[in-house]
Description:
The chain is mostly helical. Helices cover 71% and strands 0% of the residues. The protein has 8 helices and no strands. It has helices spanning 5-18, 23-37, 44-55, 61-75, 80-85, 96-109, 113-126, 134-151. Helix 6 (96-109) runs parallel beside helix 8 (134-151). The radius of gyration is 15 Å and the shape is globular. The protein starts with a helix and ends with a helix.
Amino acid sequence: MNNDPILTQIGQAVELHHQHGQRDAARDLFAKIWDEIGGERGDPLHVCVLAHSMADVQDDVRQELMWDLRAIAAADSLTDERVAGAGVPLSVAGLYPSLHLNLAECYRKLDDLDSAREHLRQAQDTIGALGDDDYGRLIRGGLERLTAELARP
């Protein structure tokens, strides 16, 4: 159970996007939260989760990539203690499959297939950190889809 008010706000913005289809409103709320946390100087957990989510509401793939790169850089500064202390049900290792999958997808969209394949490989190498639950199956499905796409000539 999440007990972090910033993560709760981020979750509300995610809900605006995914459950209510309000992409612009979600992007605006993410931007407000980004300013509140001090941008990239903020708590790495907040930066990681917010940047990972903000990437999903970008219209330009280069902006999406920039946010995804911020997310993975912040993840590199996280500890399992910090993540657990916020009530997040994943270990730090459990964040990487999705982070790498998103980067792989951005690079695929930009036609940088070598970088896409490298991040896909890293996502596959870290997928064992996820359980056999809805989230784990979602990420595994994304990896399978992207693997098939990148295998096409």
